[in-house]
Protein backbone atom coordinates (compact mmCIF):
# COMPACT_ATOMS: atom_id res chain seq x y z
CA UNK A 1 0.00 0.00 0.00
CA UNK A 2 1.37 3.40 -0.99
CA UNK A 3 2.48 5.76 1.79
CA UNK A 4 0.75 9.13 1.85
CA UNK A 5 2.96 12.03 0.87
CA UNK A 6 3.97 14.38 3.71
CA UNK A 7 1.70 17.35 4.18
CA UNK A 8 2.97 20.86 3.41
CA UNK A 9 4.36 22.54 6.50
CA UNK A 10 1.44 25.00 6.72
CA UNK A 11 -1.02 22.09 7.00
CA UNK A 12 1.00 19.69 9.14
CA UNK A 13 1.03 21.99 12.18
CA UNK A 14 -2.67 22.04 13.13
CA UNK A 15 -6.27 21.63 11.96
CA UNK A 16 -7.09 22.85 8.47
CA UNK A 17 -10.06 23.07 6.11
CA UNK A 18 -10.48 21.20 2.85
CA UNK A 19 -10.37 24.58 1.11
CA UNK A 20 -6.96 25.31 2.67
CA UNK A 21 -5.83 21.92 1.43
CA UNK A 22 -6.82 22.81 -2.12
CA UNK A 23 -4.94 26.11 -1.87
CA UNK A 24 -1.86 24.12 -0.83
CA UNK A 25 -2.34 21.86 -3.86
CA UNK A 26 -3.03 18.60 -2.04
CA UNK A 27 -5.33 16.21 -3.88
CA UNK A 28 -8.81 15.15 -2.71
CA UNK A 29 -7.36 11.65 -2.19
CA UNK A 30 -4.72 13.01 0.17
CA UNK A 31 -7.42 14.51 2.43
CA UNK A 32 -8.81 10.96 2.89
CA UNK A 33 -5.51 9.41 4.02
CA UNK A 34 -5.42 7.51 7.30
CA UNK A 35 -2.96 9.96 8.86
CA UNK A 36 -5.71 12.60 8.93
CA UNK A 37 -8.52 12.68 11.49
CA UNK A 38 -11.96 14.02 10.47
CA UNK A 39 -13.53 15.82 13.50
CA UNK A 40 -16.26 17.41 11.37
CA UNK A 41 -17.18 17.84 7.72
CA UNK A 42 -14.71 19.92 5.75
CA UNK A 43 -12.03 19.78 8.49
CA UNK A 44 -8.91 17.65 8.80
CA UNK A 45 -6.47 17.21 11.69
CA UNK A 46 -3.05 15.53 11.42
CA UNK A 47 -3.42 12.39 13.57
CA UNK A 48 -1.70 12.62 16.94
CA UNK A 49 -1.03 16.34 16.57
CA UNK A 50 -1.36 18.21 19.86
CA UNK A 51 -2.84 21.65 19.48
CA UNK A 52 -4.37 24.40 21.54
CA UNK A 53 -8.11 25.02 21.75
CA UNK A 54 -7.64 28.11 19.59
CA UNK A 55 -5.89 26.06 16.90
CA UNK A 56 -8.60 23.41 17.06
CA UNK A 57 -11.38 25.99 16.85
CA UNK A 58 -9.93 28.09 14.02
CA UNK A 59 -11.23 26.09 11.01
CA UNK A 60 -14.74 25.89 12.46
CA UNK A 61 -14.96 29.69 12.39
CA UNK A 62 -13.87 29.79 8.74
CA UNK A 63 -16.50 27.46 7.30
CA UNK A 64 -19.94 28.80 6.33
CA UNK A 65 -21.41 31.84 8.09
CA UNK A 66 -19.08 33.61 10.53
CA UNK A 67 -19.14 31.93 13.95
CA UNK A 68 -17.52 33.04 17.19
CA UNK A 69 -15.99 30.79 19.85
CA UNK A 70 -18.09 31.29 22.98
CA UNK A 71 -19.39 30.01 26.33
CA UNK A 72 -17.19 27.31 27.94
CA UNK A 73 -14.76 27.24 25.00
CA UNK A 74 -14.16 30.97 25.34
CA UNK A 75 -13.89 30.59 29.12
CA UNK A 76 -11.12 28.00 28.72
CA UNK A 77 -9.31 30.21 26.20
CA UNK A 78 -9.56 33.19 28.57
CA UNK A 79 -8.33 30.93 31.43
CA UNK A 80 -11.31 31.57 33.68
CA UNK A 81 -11.11 30.07 37.17
CA UNK A 82 -13.99 27.66 36.58
CA UNK A 83 -15.13 25.39 39.41
CA UNK A 84 -13.95 21.81 39.04
CA UNK A 85 -17.47 20.46 38.63
CA UNK A 86 -18.02 22.65 35.56
CA UNK A 87 -14.54 22.24 34.07
CA UNK A 88 -14.90 18.44 34.34
CA UNK A 89 -16.40 17.24 31.05
CA UNK A 90 -17.91 14.20 32.76
CA UNK A 91 -20.12 16.24 35.07
CA UNK A 92 -20.84 18.93 32.47
CA UNK A 93 -20.56 17.08 29.13
CA UNK A 94 -21.19 20.14 26.96
CA UNK A 95 -18.16 21.89 28.50
CA UNK A 96 -15.89 19.48 26.64
CA UNK A 97 -17.41 20.32 23.25
CA UNK A 98 -16.67 23.32 21.05
CA UNK A 99 -19.12 26.18 21.66
CA UNK A 100 -19.85 28.51 18.75
CA UNK A 101 -22.23 31.48 18.59
CA UNK A 102 -23.73 32.76 15.36
CA UNK A 103 -25.21 36.22 15.00
CA UNK A 104 -27.96 35.16 12.64
CA UNK A 105 -31.19 33.26 12.16
CA UNK A 106 -29.88 29.78 13.01
CA UNK A 107 -27.32 28.32 15.41
CA UNK A 108 -24.33 26.37 14.05
CA UNK A 109 -24.95 22.64 13.67
CA UNK A 110 -21.88 20.42 13.47
CA UNK A 111 -20.48 17.25 14.96
CA UNK A 112 -18.73 18.05 18.23
CA UNK A 113 -20.19 21.57 18.37
CA UNK A 114 -22.71 23.15 20.72
CA UNK A 115 -24.33 25.88 18.65
CA UNK A 116 -25.79 29.13 20.00
CA UNK A 117 -27.64 31.96 18.31
CA UNK A 118 -27.35 35.43 19.80
CA UNK A 119 -26.87 39.08 18.97
CA UNK A 120 -23.17 39.94 19.30
CA UNK A 121 -22.13 43.58 19.48
CA UNK A 122 -18.73 44.61 18.04
CA UNK A 123 -17.24 44.89 21.54
CA UNK A 124 -18.49 41.36 22.34
CA UNK A 125 -15.82 39.86 20.06
CA UNK A 126 -12.03 39.83 20.26
CA UNK A 127 -9.66 38.33 17.70
CA UNK A 128 -7.05 36.00 19.20
CA UNK A 129 -4.46 34.57 16.80
CA UNK A 130 -6.91 35.16 13.97
CA UNK A 131 -9.82 33.45 15.74
CA UNK A 132 -12.98 35.35 16.80
CA UNK A 133 -13.73 34.71 20.48
CA UNK A 134 -16.32 36.32 22.73
CA UNK A 135 -14.75 38.97 24.94
CA UNK A 136 -14.15 38.42 28.66
CA UNK A 137 -17.25 40.43 29.73
CA UNK A 138 -19.49 38.75 27.15
CA UNK A 139 -18.19 35.30 28.10
CA UNK A 140 -18.95 36.04 31.76
CA UNK A 141 -22.47 37.06 30.79
CA UNK A 142 -23.01 33.93 28.71
CA UNK A 143 -21.82 31.65 31.50
CA UNK A 144 -24.01 33.42 34.05
CA UNK A 145 -27.02 32.54 31.91
CA UNK A 146 -26.27 28.80 31.68
CA UNK A 147 -27.54 27.99 35.16
CA UNK A 148 -24.41 25.89 35.82
CA UNK A 149 -22.52 28.54 37.81
CA UNK A 150 -23.48 29.77 41.26
CA UNK A 151 -23.20 33.34 42.48
CA UNK A 152 -20.04 32.35 44.36
CA UNK A 153 -18.55 30.74 41.23
CA UNK A 154 -19.01 33.99 39.32
CA UNK A 155 -17.44 36.04 42.12
CA UNK A 156 -14.41 33.72 42.04
CA UNK A 157 -13.98 34.29 38.30
CA UNK A 158 -14.48 38.06 38.61
CA UNK A 159 -12.05 38.33 41.55
CA UNK A 160 -9.36 36.61 39.49
CA UNK A 161 -9.95 38.84 36.46
CA UNK A 162 -9.75 42.10 38.43
CA UNK A 163 -6.95 41.06 40.80
CA UNK A 164 -3.96 43.40 40.92
CA UNK A 165 -1.30 44.08 43.52
CA UNK A 166 2.41 44.80 43.81
CA UNK A 167 3.52 41.97 46.08
CA UNK A 168 7.27 41.64 45.67
CA UNK A 169 7.15 37.89 45.00
CA UNK A 170 4.40 37.82 42.40
CA UNK A 171 2.85 41.15 41.36
CA UNK A 172 -0.31 40.99 39.27
CA UNK A 173 -2.03 43.30 36.81
CA UNK A 174 -5.80 43.23 36.34
CA UNK A 175 -6.97 41.78 33.04
CA UNK A 176 -10.12 43.89 33.37
CA UNK A 177 -10.93 46.47 36.00
CA UNK A 178 -13.98 45.96 38.17
CA UNK A 179 -15.34 49.27 36.91
CA UNK A 180 -15.05 48.12 33.28
CA UNK A 181 -16.99 44.92 34.01
CA UNK A 182 -19.66 46.83 35.88
CA UNK A 183 -20.02 49.37 33.08
CA UNK A 184 -20.41 46.53 30.59
CA UNK A 185 -23.22 44.88 32.55
CA UNK A 186 -24.82 48.28 33.14
CA UNK A 187 -25.06 48.86 29.39
CA UNK A 188 -26.69 45.54 28.51
CA UNK A 189 -30.36 44.95 27.89
CA UNK A 190 -32.01 42.28 30.09
CA UNK A 191 -30.90 38.75 29.16
CA UNK A 192 -30.54 35.47 31.04
CA UNK A 193 -27.87 35.73 33.72
CA UNK A 194 -27.52 39.52 33.68
CA UNK A 195 -28.97 40.11 37.18
CA UNK A 196 -26.86 37.26 38.62
CA UNK A 197 -23.71 38.67 37.03
CA UNK A 198 -24.43 42.19 38.30
CA UNK A 199 -24.91 40.79 41.81
CA UNK A 200 -21.63 38.87 41.59
CA UNK A 201 -19.73 41.99 40.50
CA UNK A 202 -21.18 43.80 43.50
CA UNK A 203 -19.49 41.18 45.71
CA UNK A 204 -16.18 41.10 43.81
CA UNK A 205 -13.12 42.71 45.36
CA UNK A 206 -9.70 43.66 44.02
CA UNK A 207 -6.76 41.77 45.50
CA UNK A 208 -7.97 38.18 46.00
CA UNK A 209 -5.06 36.02 44.90
CA UNK A 210 -6.78 32.63 44.61
CA UNK A 211 -10.26 31.05 44.45
CA UNK A 212 -10.00 29.69 48.05
CA UNK A 213 -9.33 33.22 49.33
CA UNK A 214 -12.46 34.47 47.57
CA UNK A 215 -14.58 31.60 48.86
CA UNK A 216 -13.29 32.14 52.41
CA UNK A 217 -14.10 35.87 52.24
CA UNK A 218 -17.63 35.09 51.03
CA UNK A 219 -18.05 32.52 53.79
CA UNK A 220 -17.15 35.18 56.36
CA UNK A 221 -19.73 37.49 54.81
CA UNK A 222 -22.48 34.87 54.90
CA UNK A 223 -21.62 34.14 58.53
CA UNK A 224 -22.37 37.69 59.58
CA UNK A 225 -18.77 38.62 60.32
CA UNK A 226 -17.44 42.14 59.66
CA UNK A 227 -16.01 42.81 56.20
CA UNK A 228 -12.55 41.42 55.47
CA UNK A 229 -10.28 43.20 52.97
CA UNK A 230 -8.13 41.15 50.56
CA UNK A 231 -4.40 41.85 50.13
CA UNK A 232 -4.25 44.12 53.16
CA UNK A 233 -0.86 45.85 53.57
CA UNK A 234 0.99 46.22 56.87
CA UNK A 235 4.32 47.97 57.35
CA UNK A 236 6.95 46.59 59.72
CA UNK A 237 9.06 48.91 61.86
CA UNK A 238 11.48 49.42 58.97
CA UNK A 239 8.65 50.36 56.61
CA UNK A 240 8.78 47.07 54.68
CA UNK A 241 5.33 46.08 53.35
CA UNK A 242 3.76 42.82 54.54
CA UNK A 243 0.73 41.50 52.65
CA UNK A 244 -2.12 39.70 54.39
CA UNK A 245 -4.62 37.57 52.46
CA UNK A 246 -7.66 38.81 54.41
CA UNK A 247 -7.78 41.42 57.16
CA UNK A 248 -10.41 43.05 59.35
CA UNK A 249 -8.78 46.28 60.65
CA UNK A 250 -11.81 47.07 62.81
CA UNK A 251 -11.12 44.05 65.04
CA UNK A 252 -7.39 43.75 64.23
CA UNK A 253 -7.80 40.29 62.70
CA UNK A 254 -5.63 38.76 59.98
CA UNK A 255 -6.35 35.53 58.07
CA UNK A 256 -3.95 33.69 55.79
CA UNK A 257 -5.01 30.91 53.43
CA UNK A 258 -2.05 28.57 53.00
CA UNK A 259 -2.10 26.57 49.78
CA UNK A 260 -0.05 23.45 49.14
CA UNK A 261 3.13 25.38 48.27
CA UNK A 262 3.29 26.58 51.89
CA UNK A 263 4.20 23.02 52.91
CA UNK A 264 7.55 23.16 51.09
CA UNK A 265 10.74 23.85 53.11
CA UNK A 266 11.58 26.77 50.82
CA UNK A 267 8.36 28.53 51.85
CA UNK A 268 8.62 27.88 55.60
CA UNK A 269 11.01 30.72 56.38
CA UNK A 270 9.12 33.46 54.46
CA UNK A 271 5.95 32.33 56.26
CA UNK A 272 7.41 32.84 59.74
CA UNK A 273 5.85 35.87 61.47
CA UNK A 274 8.12 38.85 61.65
CA UNK A 275 8.87 40.07 65.19
CA UNK A 276 9.07 43.58 63.75
CA UNK A 277 5.57 43.58 62.24
CA UNK A 278 3.09 46.08 63.55
CA UNK A 279 -0.28 44.80 64.63
CA UNK A 280 -3.41 45.75 62.75
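^ Assign residues to that structure.
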Amino acid sequence: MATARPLPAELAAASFTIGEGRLSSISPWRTKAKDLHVPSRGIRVPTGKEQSLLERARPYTWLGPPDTVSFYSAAFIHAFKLPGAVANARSTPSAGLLHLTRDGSAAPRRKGVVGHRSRLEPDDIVILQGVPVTSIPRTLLDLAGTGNLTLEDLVVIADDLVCEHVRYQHPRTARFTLGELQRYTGSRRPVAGLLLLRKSLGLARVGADSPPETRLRLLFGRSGLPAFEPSYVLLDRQGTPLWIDLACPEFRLAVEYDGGHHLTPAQHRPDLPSPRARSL
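Residues 151-162 form the longest helix (12 residues).
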